[in-house]
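Supplementary Methods. Inverse-folding protocol.

Structures were first reduced to a discrete structure-token string of length 534. This string, shown here, constituted the complete conditioning input.
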């Protein structure tokens, strides 16, 4: 997030796109509700009638995968009505004129044709956002999990830049992290093309700095992304894989593809707190300690580094992740020399200036947000106050292109996957909680009433939903939350695994799979369980 969670309550406009915030990020959802109580306007851009729609001033129910066309159309209106922040553009950005020209064809009428959103709603949204004093943009995987996810993010950045809504309190572009410490993991280099602190492996000076610190030779080539590793294993090029705290058998697209790839490996190691569906395929399982059984730091979605303290001992042979990694490194001939998690954090501050001002004593009671460059630095609630790292931010012209797999006569519906409030991710933890399972016991496919009527499907009936990759049996939940022509399935339930159906097509830049759009069909099967229609 460019800005802070605490700032949300002071937004005078919230633009929520591709994020069912109150269910998937309920604490941040509470902050949004505080802003709404203070009079903030709310724009929701989502194919589903999520809970926030009830509070929205404007709901843009777009067709899945048409985000670029919609945002470009909004920006077209902002340019046409001269609602841009010209002083900000001139002082802090570049390439605006070429970018402005790229918007010329994206009239509201053209946007309506592509997205299904009425032109007048596009115009109203443009005026609401551009005229707001402190608007914040919030998004999650509904924006990124597309074959054009990077383009979607470029569009969002362009929108904030052209209106001068970066580098100020209660504004910004705010991707909400989906899992605990995902921000911290990427900060510390758990991505294939960066060392800790987003320092590129391809820059010789950077690589040499880490080689000196770690006393080891390092490759100049970026590694593989998670999706690329699965494809490489399927081809037989990747022979061994170490999976830590991840359950790709349920979370990756096209489960059959993933399982076949993992079974083709010569050697699979899984390190996790439970015997997941992925761990069941492993040659070796290394039992890890959970968050309450170890010391260290977590970095949350607003870049806040916080202390984690051991409360109880891990059960049986389970050990802290750091203990497992350092001992494994020793067996492989490399001595890591760390005596504690604090030693690792201290090294991180020496190697990445954004953490240089932090130590355990400073974050003992309350975390700090990076960048925090000196021991008297208070941390950074919002980014870009004094400018951008590269002096001027660059506008990126982006053209709409359809999703890779669109509905047709054989597979006439579009599947969207996501989360629900009570379950979490692949259910590794939450589905072991009896109270949660009583309230949220099984998977379902959310079907618009018109689509259900056309297929002869009644509420509570078991149906078969199929794609070009497989099929599952699942309970029908007839609901007006879903746009006609779309269905929604939460991906938490292994008995009705949504990712049995999804496509392995990926974004060419980020390599993120297109989990939010794939073509499916519905068939009624005979096993009725009547449930109350919502």
């Amino acid at each position: 997030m460019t800005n802070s969670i605490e700032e949300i309550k002071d937004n005078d406009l919230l633009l929520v796109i591709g994020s069912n915030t109150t269910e998937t990020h309920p604490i941040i959802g509470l902050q949004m509700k505080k802003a709404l109580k203070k009079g903030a306007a709310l724009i929701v851009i989502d194919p589903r009638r999520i809970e926030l729609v009830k509070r929205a001033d404007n709901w843009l129910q777009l067709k899945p995968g048409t985000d670029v066309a919609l945002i470009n159309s909004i920006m077209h209106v902002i340019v046409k009505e001269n609602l841009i922040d010209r002083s900000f553009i001139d002082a802090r950005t570049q390439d605006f004129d070429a970018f402005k020209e790229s918007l010329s064809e994206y009239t509201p009428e053209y946007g309506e044709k592509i997205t299904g959103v009425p032109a007048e709603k596009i115009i109203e949204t443009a005026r609401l956002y551009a005229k707001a004093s402190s608007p914040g943009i919030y998004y999650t995987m509904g924006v990124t999990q597309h074959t054009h996810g990077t383009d979607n993010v470029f569009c969002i950045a362009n929108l904030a830049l052209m209106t001068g809504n970066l580098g100020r309190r209660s504004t910004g572009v705010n991707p909400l992290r989906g899992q605990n410490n995902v921000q911290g993991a990427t900060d510390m280099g758990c991505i294939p093309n960066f060392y800790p602190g987003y320092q590129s492996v391809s820059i010789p000076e950077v690589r040499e700095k880490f080689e000196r610190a770690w006393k080891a030779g390092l490759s100049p080539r970026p590694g593989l992304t998670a999706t690329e590793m699965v494809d490489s294993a399927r081809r037989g090029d990747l022979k061994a894989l170490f999976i830590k705290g991840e359950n790709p058998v349920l979370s990756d697209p096209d489960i059959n593809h993933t399982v076949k790839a993992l079974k083709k490996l010569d050697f699979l190691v899984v390190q996790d707190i439970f015997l997941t569906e992925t761990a069941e395929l492993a040659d070796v399982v290394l039992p890890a300690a959970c968050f309450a059984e170890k010391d260290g730091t977590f970095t949350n979605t607003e870049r806040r580094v916080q202390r984690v303290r051991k409360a109880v001992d891990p059960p049986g042979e389970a050990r802290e992740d750091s203990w497992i990694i350092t001992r494994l490194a020793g067996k492989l001939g490399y001595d890591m020399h760390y005596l504690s998690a604090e030693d690792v954090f201290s090294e991180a501050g020496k190697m990445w200036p954004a953490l240089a001002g932090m130590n355990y004593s400073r974050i003992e009671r309350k975390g700090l947000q990076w960048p925090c460059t000196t021991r008297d630095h208070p941390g950074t609630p919002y980014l870009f106050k004094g400018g951008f790292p590269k002096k001027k931010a660059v506008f990126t012209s982006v053209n709409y292109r359809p999703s890779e797999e669109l509905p047709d006569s054989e597979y006439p519906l579009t599947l969207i996957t996501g989360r629900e409030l009570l379950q979490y991710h692949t259910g590794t933890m939450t589905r072991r909680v009896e109270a949660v399972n009583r309230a949220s016991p099984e998977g379902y496919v959310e079907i618009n009433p018109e689509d259900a009527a056309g297929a002869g499907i009644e509420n509570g009936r078991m149906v078969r939903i199929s794609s070009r990759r497989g099929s599952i049996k699942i309970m029908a939940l007839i609901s007006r939350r879903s746009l006609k022509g779309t269905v929604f399935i939460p991906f938490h339930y292994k008995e009705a695994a949504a990712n049995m159906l999804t496509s392995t097509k990926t974004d060419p830049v980020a390599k993120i799979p297109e989990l939010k759009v794939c073509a499916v069909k519905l068939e009624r099967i005979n096993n009725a369980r009547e449930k109350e229609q919502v």
